[in-house]
Amino acid sequence: MTSKQTAKVRVAIIGASGYTGAELVRLLVRHPLVDIVAMTADRKAGKTLGSVFPHLAAVEREATLPGLTAIDAVDWTDIDVAFCGLPHGTTQQVVAAMPSTVKVIDLSADFRLRDVATYAEWYGDSHKAPELQKEAVYGLTELAREDISRARLVSCPGCYPTSCLLPLVPLLEANVIKSVDIIIDAKSGVSGAGRAAKEGSLFAEVSEGVHAYGVAKHRHAPEIEQALSLAAGGTVTANFTPHLMPMNRGILSSIYVRLAEGVSADDARTALARRYDGEPFVHVLESGFAPATRHVRGSNNCIIGVFADRVPGRAIVLSVIDNLIKGASGQAIQNMNVVCGFDETTGLQQQALFP
Amino acid sequence: MTSKQTAKVRVAIIGASGYTGAELVRLLVRHPLVDIVAMTADRKAGKTLGSVFPHLAAVEREATLPGLTAIDAVDWTDIDVAFCGLPHGTTQQVVAAMPSTVKVIDLSADFRLRDVATYAEWYGDSHKAPELQKEAVYGLTELAREDISRARLVSCPGCYPTSCLLPLVPLLEANVIKSVDIIIDAKSGVSGAGRAAKEGSLFAEVSEGVHAYGVAKHRHAPEIEQALSLAAGGTVTANFTPHLMPMNRGILSSIYVRLAEGVSADDARTALARRYDGEPFVHVLESGFAPATRHVRGSNNCIIGVFADRVPGRAIVLSVIDNLIKGASGQAIQNMNVVCGFDETTGLQQQALFP
Amino acid sequence: MTSKQTAKVRVAIIGASGYTGAELVRLLVRHPLVDIVAMTADRKAGKTLGSVFPHLAAVEREATLPGLTAIDAVDWTDIDVAFCGLPHGTTQQVVAAMPSTVKVIDLSADFRLRDVATYAEWYGDSHKAPELQKEAVYGLTELAREDISRARLVSCPGCYPTSCLLPLVPLLEANVIKSVDIIIDAKSGVSGAGRAAKEGSLFAEVSEGVHAYGVAKHRHAPEIEQALSLAAGGTVTANFTPHLMPMNRGILSSIYVRLAEGVSADDARTALARRYDGEPFVHVLESGFAPATRHVRGSNNCIIGVFADRVPGRAIVLSVIDNLIKGASGQAIQNMNVVCGFDETTGLQQQALFP
Amino acid sequence: MTSKQTAKVRVAIIGASGYTGAELVRLLVRHPLVDIVAMTADRKAGKTLGSVFPHLAAVEREATLPGLTAIDAVDWTDIDVAFCGLPHGTTQQVVAAMPSTVKVIDLSADFRLRDVATYAEWYGDSHKAPELQKEAVYGLTELAREDISRARLVSCPGCYPTSCLLPLVPLLEANVIKSVDIIIDAKSGVSGAGRAAKEGSLFAEVSEGVHAYGVAKHRHAPEIEQALSLAAGGTVTANFTPHLMPMNRGILSSIYVRLAEGVSADDARTALARRYDGEPFVHVLESGFAPATRHVRGSNNCIIGVFADRVPGRAIVLSVIDNLIKGASGQAIQNMNVVCGFDETTGLQQQALFP
After folding, report:
1. C-alpha torsion C46→C49→C54→C55, nearest 10
2. Taking the domain A160-322, which CATH number applies?
3. Which of A231, A326, C11, C92 has the least CB density, counted as fewest CB within 10 Å?
4. How far is CA A331 from CA A155, A157, A344, in A?
5. Cα B262–chain centre separation
6. What are phi and psi of D117, to 5 degrees?
7. A84 flagged as catalytic
């Protein structure tokens, strides 16, 4: 693969029949430096993408997209970059079987936890590619660009972790907040549950109501704590409580933190704004403004607001992303841009769709 | 007014053209011990209820409901109980002008804060009836039955306070949790904003997204802190962060607390379950179960779940109500039942409507 | 079974784990003349109702409801009335095996089509109880009270047919409209698809969009045409095009008809209003008013509006119901009331829940 | 204005604070051949766009967008093309006052009706620029490219008319369908009602329900009939019944038509497919497939399905668009592309956002 921006990279989308797969297609088909040359979907092999996702049928007529195949049918010698959007637990062996010439952007959880024992504890099975795990780079783009640019295997963060680590990691690294008593009340749209036909994701079960789920045992908790611990330079245990919202897209993480001695909420806001100054996709709001998920729907943006708490010494940090874009497919493409030496915003400049 | 259950009380609904007014009518028209004899709605005086709320037109055909009038047109000598659902700031003078023979169930914020200086600070105007304030009883029914039964003026709690005080007050009173670091992340449906035509309540502005609002300055904060302070026997400052949900009804308060020394989350759960044992409208779930707002939609119920936090020494308390019923009109009727000596569940036995 | 209103009927709910089953429980548990003595749910036998439908857990604590069992476990000698809410095609044999002392209120499609050949054509299998079919009464309550009162087996109409037959049958019978060119554009909430976990019923697939389905081949078409043909005294073929709406409950049938010679739309409106004058559950709006499904959500009501079309000689008839109540469980209970000689509104006086 | 594609056109957006204005900005800011040089919003003059539409704040930081001004502040000598998104009735005088060097793409209804008397009848006021009306071109792009390319003033069709005229006009012109008994049951998302704070557009009034509105008197009726009459070569009166859907975006027009003698529904489908063969934005589905509004949300596409009716001699035509894009701002930009000699798809290649 060349770093010349004129050469197109040849991309495979492994697991194209889920919502993140569809978003990868939607975005990559308009990416000027990418050719999609393979798409897989084991249970739907043989079908066209348009029959699985009618909203992409127009693309299919216009571009020359490959049909959906089984993974076995992919000719890896033809692939520069593979996006993996497979269910958790199934990616490790797939990646291990790829030739090392293929760069991998993984959207699953399979390579997110550095410690394979922690992986086994939370995902219920032993890690199938511990050697690969060692070289995997945790791809929170804004905070790991250098490592990502040299990586062969980028493990993209989960949607919830992306929303809360973007504000929390810099605040911890700068000692602006304390590492104890961090409480993350996260709210996600239903697309985060994927396209599987489950009673709990039915319209009639999800609309017109909210509830918490996976309380104190969601798999994104160890992923968040891993990153917080690295940032704080010591073990951090944090509250992470996800809630299901009656909407399609978006995550709002409402984060309640204790400020370091002598630090005000506005100091924290300023520190964060300075840290992300010039970043194309992360924006810290002015004092007094709160972000809404609908302000980022359909975009790769993360918007953050910081407020003083009525409780002295505490602050409230509000962070929003589109879970399918910055929380999944958009950040994956951003990582690919870094890996390939492209301008990081290439193909990702869509603005939010509102209303 | 007699306490014999066979005599019907004669009721006026002051402010019948809002959502809480409509809920009062819907419920009271089926209450076997009530006659609605007056309904007011200043801007819609002269109209029928069915023209303002078509979903109640069927009631109007069947029962003999009075038309909407101005407040001035009410003959107070004919009224046993007045439900007041007026905008904040306008109730004090209205109640002050009523004869003392009228019992008042107030749904506004006008008599919720014991300290009239605190009222003035948060509501931006001096209190107009400080003498009445002294006799007002804060009507969280399950926790103040005795006082309510003797009250002439019951001030019904706000919707958010109802959802979080029902679990928090007993936990504080029993010294099961500490009074510091209480964090209340509350999520409400849009009906809580009322029927006023505001850009921020439009379907296109509210659906398919979530956001926090009134961060660190919502008027329910001092009301919550007043009750927590009384329960803890000392000043409590708590975080209260409300969020707007894309749904009509329901409040979920996700409350993050620090347990007292030596107390487990399950101890807390058990203490709360014992406190509410036998209560018809408040139920504490078994260990491991989380409530959803849709489980109480359309009912006067409050459901509470308690979980251990991953952070040692902390617990997560989840509480759901229907904001228009247990959080407003249902609790108001429950209070009227107490005031009138009726069985507390009379007229309030509707089960939740799902889906 | 006695017709004395003081004796309670003993009821079995066959198929209690679907949405219509849950609605039957919710309504019957408050019906003053009913005891629920058996509930079946084959795949969920052994569970409590509250674990299957948490919104009904409160009922379970308060009343003494039976647990969910397999059908085989029902002691039919103990049952006066059986409500059958089984999937289509499975009811015929179940009813055939019941003793004739059990009155049956069937909510499935199994006995709706008089002609068993038509049944076989549309439902893909031969009828299993053709003798029972002969005695089945099509239970559109307002239009078939006499027959229902004498029936042993009442076949409740489908949700769509209920919404459009209530206006169309009287208009045809009175020769107010012509029987040709009847176009029914029907719009239903998602609960009509039941609680089965299907991709097409997922929140993410259904919200924020509308589409037609079953175009020109929906199974409610022959049911509608059967009733229209009877009303018109000759074979009627009608357009029936169902659409899926991003909402839980409600059906709006927008019906486009050709008026008989010399008849105005207002004549039609008046004829319909007169036909339903005094009916507790069916109401015809005044000229110029259009009904909304949210005006009947949670109630057993049907509201109808009639408008002149801009196209001369045509009229527009708009009819709304709650598909789970008047379109299913409410009408079923209404039929039980007729069968048992109770006041038809017993247990069905809940008003619409709005918003 | 030059037709060389390298020269950017200088654009003013008149009325930028409504939903269609926001969509114009969102799309034009990424249009490679456009510079936005003026944006007006009378009541919000002086504000930044990001404060009015936070979802566009990211654009504002990145591009150099002008602030919102009053119309009077626009220097027309600096403008090549003006998009007018003003309320109906206010555009005629604004356009009349512009220098003739400015090309106008009008999104209001002010120039849609050829006959100024018809305009006065339906819009309640006399036409203020009858001379301009004569030169206005009705901008249904696919059907009027030639005229549009030579126009100075393009009057963009309404959202509803766009959805139903795209299928109906070719079918009438080709004598595939009859011009009598055309029934258009149209379903629109709430954004079509604009951003004005009206009770009827509140979340609580619109969600979880559907209803018809403007029955037999909606202002898009004469616009539709004007185009149908031109296509049929004689006066056509059609039924047009709009319905409000609980969703943000999208229109589905379900159209019920009578086929010409000897013509089958599949003939009609084929004729329409042939007519739109090669069109980038209009697609006719294969036999048996129905379009959904969510398949076009966020795109400039129109998707059409055609079905045989069960009623002999009739067909069902289903047409979907995004009301804010193909039904408003997207089609307006498409028309600008034609007027300016650009490739018609420039800046409009966004695919649908789903879910």
Report:
1. 170
2. 3.30.360.10
3. A231
4. 11, 9, 10
5. 34
6. -70, -40
7. no
A322 neighbourhood in chain B, CB within 8 Å: none
Cβ separation D58–A297 shorter than 8 A:
no
- Determine whether the interchain pair A201/C198 forms a contact, defined as Cβ–Cβ distance below 8 Å: no
**What is the full per-residue pLDDT of chain B (355 aa) written as tens digits?**
444 445 799 999 999 999 999 999 999 999 999 999 999 998 899 999 999 999 999 888 877 899 999 999 999 999 999 999 999 899 999 999 999 999 999 999 999 999 999 999 999 999 999 999 999 999 999 999 999 999 999 999 999 999 999 999 999 999 999 999 999 999 999 999 999 999 999 999 999 999 999 999 999 999 999 999 999 999 999 999 999 999 999 999 999 999 999 999 999 999 999 999 999 999 999 999 999 999 999 999 999 999 999 999 999 999 999 999 999 999 999 999 999 999 999 999 999 999 9
* Cα(C103)–Cα(C349) distance, integer angstroms: 24
- C157 close to C164: Cβ distance less than 8 angstroms: no
Alpha-carbon distance D255 to D338, whole Å? 29
Structure tokens at D119: 């305009």
Whether the CB of B54 is below 8 Å from some CB of chain C: the reply is yes
Which helix (H) or strand (E) segment holds residue B9: the answer is strand B9-14
| Pick from A83, A54, A162, A49: nearest CA to A340 | A83
**Chains touching A by CB (3 or more pairs below 8 Å):** B, C, D
DSSP D43-72: GGTTS-HHHH-GGGHHHHHHS-PPPEE-GG
User: How many interface pairs between A and D have CB atoms less than 8 angstroms apart?
Assistant: 85
Q: Residue B26 has which token pair?
A: 């819907």
Find where tokens 């348009």 sit: A50
Residues 258-317, chain D: which have Cβ within 8 Å of C? 290-295, 297, 305, 307-312, 314, 316
The closest CB to that of A298, out of D53, D54, D298, belongs to: D298
Instruction: Give me the amino acid identity at C301.
Output: N
**Secondary structure element (H or E) that encloses residue D170, with its range:** helix D159-173
Architecture in CATH for domain A9-135: 3-Layer(aba) Sandwich (3.40)
Q: Chain A within 8 Å of B128 (Cβ-Cβ)?
A: no
Contact B208 A249 (CB under 8 A): yes
The tokens for D345 are: 């798809």
Residues 6+ apart with CB under 8 A from A343: A5, A337
Among B190, B199, B248, the residue with its CB nearest the CB of D197 is B199
Kindly report whether the global pTM for this prediction surpasses the value 0.80: yes
Domain boundaries, chain B: 9-135, 160-323
Q: Does domain D160-323 have CATH number 3.30.360.10?
A: yes
- Name subunits touching C (3+ CB pairs < 8 A): A, B, D
| Apex C31 CA angle, C29 and C33, nearest 5 | 120
Query: In terms of CA atoms, which chain B residue is nearest residue D208?
Result: B248
Nearest to A295 among D55, D295, D301 (CB): D55
* Least Cα separation, residue C210 to chain D (angstroms): 6
CA angle C160, C161, C164 (to 5 degrees): 90
B201 CB near a chain A CB, below 8 Å?
Answer: no
Residue of B nearest to C302 (CA): B58
Q: What is the identity of the amino acid at C68?
A: L
Could you give the 3-state DSSP secondary structure of residue D71? helix
Q: What is the CATH number of domain C9-157+326-340?
A: 3.40.50.720
Contact with chain D for residue B198, Cβ under 8 A: yes
Go through chain B and tell me how many residues it has.
355
Contacts of D56 in chain A (CB under 8 A): 351-352
Which residues pair with residue B165 across a beta bridge? Answer: none
Residue the block writes with tokens 């329960």 = B231
Q: What is the DSSP string of C109-150?
A: STTT-S-HHHHHHHHSS--S-HHHHHH-EE--GGG-HHHHHT
Contact C248 A203 (CB under 8 A): yes
Q: Which residues of A254-264 are buried (b: 16+ CB within 10 A; e: fewer)?
A: bbbbbbbeebe
